[in-house]
Each structure stands twice: as C-alpha cells, then as structure tokens.
Design a protein that fits this description.
Layout: H1 2-6, E1 10-16, E2 19-26, E3 29-41, E4 44-54, E5 57-61, H2 63-72, E6 75-79, H3 84-96, E7 103-106, H4 110-114, E8 127-129, E9 132-134, H5 136-151, H6 157-170, H7 173-180, H8 186-189, E10 190-194, H9 213-222, H10 228-235, E11 244-248, H11 255-267, E12 272-277, H12 280-294, E13 300-303, E14 322-326, H13 327-335, E15 343-348, H14 360-380, E16 388-393, H15 399-405, E17 409-413, E18 420-426, H16 429-444, E19 456-459, H17 463-472, E20 477-480, H18 486-497, E21 503-506, E22 520-523, E23 527-528, E24 531-532, H19 535-542, E25 554-560, H20 574-583, H21 595-609, H22 613-618, H23 626-636, E26 639-640, E27 643-644, H24 646-653, H25 658-669, H26 674-687
Parallel strand pairs: 1-6, 6-7, 11-16, 11-17, 12-14, 12-15, 13-14, 15-16, 18-25, 19-21, 19-22, 20-21, 22-25
Antiparallel strand pairs: 1-2, 2-3, 3-4, 4-5, 8-9, 10-18, 23-24, 26-27
Helix pairs in contact: 5-6, 5-7, 13-14, 14-21, 21-23, 21-24, 25-26
Length: 688
C-alpha cells in the first residue's frame, strides 16, 4: 500500500450507516475503496477502524494508515449527501490533523457514492432525482430502467434519444418519468412552433376585377379584397387564361383561385369546369360546396368512379356546367369514350398525389389524356380555345421543377395564417386513448378570441380504431371514414361545423382537404394501413390544425409508441418515423413507373389516343419505357396494332392491373377454380 500512498490524489468520504465509505483515486481512476469508522476521543473524532474493501470482503488495516493517506492526498472531499452530523464529524477529524485547507464539502451523485465512485456534480451537470441530485450517467441508467417499466420492454432508438435530450435540458428525471405516465407537461412535449408568417402582397380589390357579373357580385358580397395567394394568382395572369400551379399552405384560400377562374369562364361561355380531387369524400364535399355557393349560377354534377353517387341520387351529367369528380371518375369517362363537350377549366386539387405509388401514375396519365382530348376538340371546333389548367397543392418539395413539367406558371405563397405548436409524447396503444381524451377535453373547454371552441381531428390507421377511439372519448365525438354511408358522413360534417362534436376520428380521408375547421390535430398513429406516412402526407394532415377565422393558433400532438410497428413489413419503428417526419424536408413530387404502371397507362393512352399514344406517353411527368410497354401489351393480347382488343378495353375500363388481368386470363384458360385464381392473385400481391 506504500506505493499507493505515495500516489494518492483524491480521498472522497461518503456516509454509509454509522460508518464512512472512503474512495481513493489517482488521475480520476479509483485505486481502492475502504470503510472508515470514527470514535470520539479526548482530542475529538479519530479513526477507530479502517478496512480495505474488495467486493463483499474487507481487509482490516491500521487506522493510522488512513491518516497517512489523508496527509499524502492532494485534496479531501466530503459528500454533500452526508448528514450534517457526519459532515461535522469528518471536518473536525481532518481539522485535528491540520488538513482543513484541503478538505471541502462537495455535491456528488448519490448512486455513484453508494457504488464507491467519486462523482462530483455541479448545478450545470446535475440531474434532479426526487429531492436529490445525480450525475448524467446515473440519470441515463435510471431513465432506462423507467423506460423498461413503462413500456414492458427496452425502449431504444429515437424515443430514448429524445427523452435523454429532454432530461438533460430540464435536468429533472421525475418530469421525464411523469411524461411516460401520460402527464402532458407542455415544456417537455413541445417539439417546435411553426410561426405564423405573412408575405407582403398588395391585395387585389374585388371591385377592380372585370369578372362576369354573376361571379363579380358574389365575390363583392363576400370580400373587399382577395387574400394574398389569390391576389398573386390574379396579378400573374389567372384571369387571362394562364395555366398556373398554386402552392400555398392549408387555409390560405388557394381553392378559390380555381373556382374564381373556372366559374367565370363557364359564365363567359368558354367551356365547362372540371374540379378534380383524389378521394370520394372530397368530391362529395366539393359537390355540396359548389351547389351551395354557385348552384344559382351554374349546373353542377359529380363523377365518382364508374357510377353515380347512389346515396344522394345525383346522376352524372356530362353536359353540366361544373363537374366535380375524382381523378378515376373522369379518367373512366375518357377511357370509355364519353363526350364531355367544351372544357374551359381543369382544376387539379392535391396535385402532389402525382408522387403516390398507387394513384400517382393514374393522375399523370389522366392529365395527359385530358389535355389531348381538349386539344383534339379545339382542332375540330375553331370557336373552342381549349382549357385553362390550375393545379393546387399545399405540399410540394420541388415546386419549380413540377410547374415546369406541367407547363404551368408557379404561384408560390409561403404563408402560415396562424402559428402551429407541434408536440411529441410517448405512450402505448391503450395509454394513447387516455391522453387523446385529455387533449380533446382541454381543447373543447377552451374558447378562442374569435369565439370558437377548440375541436380536434384524430388521425389513426384503421376504420376499426376510428370507432374504438370515438367511443372512449368523454365528449361527443364521431368516426369519419370512407366506410360510412354518404348521409352519415354529411351528418358528421354538419355536426362538426356547428360545434356539436368535440372531435372526429378519421383515417386518410380527411388528410387531403375535407374542410373541418379544427384547432387541434392528434396523430394516434403515424401509419395509414400498413404504410408509414410520407413527409407530404404528414404535413398535409398537421396543416388541418388552426384556421385564421376561427382560432388563435393550431396545436398538433404526435403520440408515439416506442419501438412499435404495425406490420412486419415496416422497417422503421414509430419513434424513428416520428422524428424523421418532424425534421424531414418536403419530398419532391415526381411520378415513378414500374412495369405494371407503365403498361396500364400506355394501354389507357392507346384506348384514348390510338397512334398518338407515344406522344401522350412522352408528355407525361414520369418516364415510361414505351417500346417495352407496347411489347407487353402485344404479348398479353391487350392491343392489336394501336387499337385495344376487346380484352384490352375491359382491362382499361375497370382499371385492372395488367399483370393481375393476365394472371386471371391465364387461369381461366386453364379452367382453374375461382378460389385458386383468388389465391394466386393474393400470393402474387405478397410477392410484389
């Protein structure tokens, strides 16, 4: 021990029971631990026993050896966690040996001290644990233990990193543990704030526009001036017939850009208006909106899929002044050769759908086919000048590139009408509902300065979950998804609009723009079905929070189940996805083609354009290997030259995947049982 005595740097004393744990260090490394016992003498407290500790065993040494160690040490430290009596006893003992100059009481980590480690901490480095303070390393270990208790298993990855960062920021372990128990501490859940911003735009006075009196009077009754994005569109040639792509945040008024020019052109005799959306729910709502707002000026019809809307009895009228439809509804009309007359305006809402795997190529093909149809009609009718195209979106990562590809003038307005606070908290599936209930009640009990109660949209990943959550909320709430009939959806929309509902719980149907004036959006799940949300979809959904005419701000809560995935095909966990979405840049909008999509769109282009199919392919956003696609169509016997065969017409009219269609045909020719055909298709889908 003599060599160790020579090289002692620090002696650290920490009270344990009636004795003291002594840690002897050199260069920050522990040399050994010992137990020290003091007794009262006529000269004051003095070492009575000194035992070296090795695991659970102790080796007795002479008490004078401790005194020699203390004299050799450069510094002596007494733990602040030692009792007041203990600190006085140690200080008096070291003073008796004239060692008071190098003796100091310091704050240390109690876990480290109990484990025989000298770990001094400061106000800047300590983490509060109950009424005590511990070091960062021990705080991480305690948090990991709490995460294990809370989640029933080890929490790793982004969730753990986020919680550790929060703990270091607020220096309080208990607050983080309470967060895991569902306490919504806003300082901890808040991720960031998307500030309200307003670009400086000179507003266009409505009475200065030379619109058809029907539209002019209607707008003058509603507004004195246009909103900024509308003013920009007008200033850049909207009313002169220029094609435009308008990119602006939700609730900034971009929809009126399309309506304004479309209705005006109808009334001026320049052709009907098509207003196209990706989802049936959106088409239903826009149809109702057009009827309410413009029904006294124009005839309005709706086209969804290949049939009428049976719930409200409105038969599709191709001669109507305004046709509201889904992409597939209008595309079906083109593929089946329906004549729609002079088309004066085409508004493509949610044009970022072009990037979606399932719908993207069909929208790309629809735009090409519809442009071709309008151009062919203009060649036949000199008095028809063709269509004006207006594309609308709130979320495009490459607006200049996309506008160029669509041959449209970019109108980009980066405004957020009200600020949005984004929050993240962690909970399992059952705990999420309890938190949602608390958030919904808090919002509904709060009234904005505009006099509106806070209402909530909860996004989840299945219809079943929609019903489950809505049943468990204390305040009135309703599920809303494509599986509900038309009347029920309209009832929910009306009740929400009249503030009779505190919340709606929905799947993807609302994300694309169904108009619910919500102040709060809650993500119960970051998946739709078995697919994680994209950055575009996420921003589209959170953009529903906060409306300038109703609310002072929008609030978004992302409820994350750490290490959770909803299907074994999902490579990432929900916590990893959450921070990817919150931090992610908007993705570029371009259409990508696999073989099936290329064959389907080429067949549709041949059906509509015949020998012009190659030109239709070439003008599309995505790159299509035309020769290969035509080869496949010939191989499948879907075309004969540049004409679809009867089989090809059936395939394209019903939007069948060509590969699936060929597999069905092959099975039929081999007299396969219908069950076998279905099984083969399911297996084929699993292989994709």
């Amino acid at each position: 021990m003599s060599k160790q005595v020579q090289e002692v740097e620090t002696i650290f004393c920490h009270e344990i029971g009636n004795d003291y744990l002594v840690v002897v260090e050199r260069d920050g490394q522990r040399l050994f631990r010992a137990k020290l016992g003091l007794s009262e003498t006529s000269a004051g407290p003095r070492p009575a026993k000194f035992r070296l500790k090795d695991g659970s065993s102790e080796e007795p040494r002479q008490p004078d050896e401790f005194v020699e160690l203390a004299r050799r040490a450069k510094r002596i430290r007494i733990s602040e966690q030692t009792s007041r009596t203990g600190r006085q006893e140690l200080t008096e003992m070291f003073g008796g040996y004239q060692l008071e100059d190098k003796t100091k009481t310091v704050r240390t980590c109690r876990y480290c001290a109990s484990a025989g480690r000298y770990s001094p901490i400061t106000t800047d480095t300590a983490i509060k644990d109950d009424n005590d303070w511990i070091c960062k390393d021990c705080a991480r270990q305690q948090l990991e233990r709490q995460l294990s208790y809370a989640g029933g298993g080890e929490v790793t990855g982004a969730a753990k990193d986020r919680l550790e960062d929060l703990m270091m920021e607020v220096q309080d372990l208990e607050r983080i543990v309470n967060l895991l128990k569902g306490q919504l501490d806003p300082d901890l859940t808040k991720f960031d704030t998307i500030s309200a911003t307003t670009d400086e735009v000179d507003p266009v006075r409505v009475d200065s526009m030379n619109l058809h009196p029907g539209v002019q009077n209607l707008l003058e009754d509603r507004f004195e001036t246009l909103l900024p994005v509308q003013s920009l569109a007008v200033d850049h040639g909207l009313l002169d017939g220029d094609d435009q792509m308008v990119v602006s945040a939700t609730a900034t008024g971009k929809t009126l850009v399309g309506e304004m020019t479309g209705i005006d052109r109808v009334l001026e005799g320049k052709g009907k208006m098509l207003f196209l959306v990706p989802l049936v729910a959106l088409a239903n709502q826009k149809y109702e909106d057009f009827q309410d707002e413009y029904g006294h000026l124009v005839d309005v019809s709706i086209r969804v899929g290949a049939s009428r809307i049976s719930d409200n009895g409105n038969q599709f009228d191709p001669n109507a002044d305004v046709i509201v439809g889904t992409y597939e509804g209008i595309d079906h009309a083109l593929r089946t050769g329906k004549e729609m007359g002079d088309i004066g305006t085409v508004v493509i809402d949610e044009v970022h759908t072009l990037k979606e795997e399932e719908r993207g190529h069909r929208l790309d093909g629809l735009i090409s086919r519809l442009k071709y149809t309008c151009e062919q009609r203009a060649k036949r009718r000199e008095e028809y000048e063709g269509a004006q195209w207006v594309y609308l979106s709130a979320t495009v990562g490459n607006p200049e590139q996309l506008a160029t590809a669509l041959e449209a003038k970019l109108i980009e307005f980066e405004e957020r009408p009200v600020p949005i606070e984004r929050h993240v908290t962690f909970a399992d599936g059952q705990e999420k509902v309890r938190i949602e209930n608390k958030l919904v009640k808090r919002a509904f009990d709060t009234e904005s300065s505009k006099g509106y109660r806070g209402q909530t949209i909860i996004f989840t990943n299945s219809r079943r979950r929609c019903h489950e959550i809505s049943r468990k909320l204390d305040y009135s709430a309703a599920p809303y998804h494509a599986g509900l009939d038309y009347r029920k959806r309209k009832q929910v929309e009306r009740q929400f609009g009249e503030q009779e509902l505190s919340a709606v719980v929905t799947t993807a149907a609302l994300a694309a723009g169904v108009d619910f004036p919500a102040s709060q959006v809650i993500f119960d799940s970051l998946a739709m079905g078995i697919e994680w949300l994209s950055v575009q979809e996420f921003h589209q959904m959170l953009g529903r929070a906060g409306r300038p005419d109703y609310h002072d701000k929008g609030t978004v809560y992302v409820l994350v189940e750490p290490d959770c995935a909803y299907h074994n095909s999902m490579e990432m966990s929900e916590d990893e996805v959450a921070f990817k979405l919150l931090k992610g840049d908007m993705e570029s909008v371009m259409t990508h083609y696999d073989e099936g999509a290329a064959v389907e769109e080429t067949l549709a282009n041949i059906t509509v354009g015949g020998k012009a199919a190659k030109a239709l392919n070439d003008r599309m956003i995505g790159d299509i290997p035309t020769k290969h696609a035509i080869g496949k169509l010939l191989q499948y016997d879907f075309i004969d030259g540049f004409e679809p065969t009867p089989l090809g017409r059936v395939i394209t009219r019903h939007f069948l995947d060509p590969g699936d269609a060929f597999a069905l045909l092959d099975g039929i020719r081999k007299d396969a049982h219908p069950y076998e055909l279905v099984a083969d298709l399911e297996l084929r889908d699993d292989d994709l």
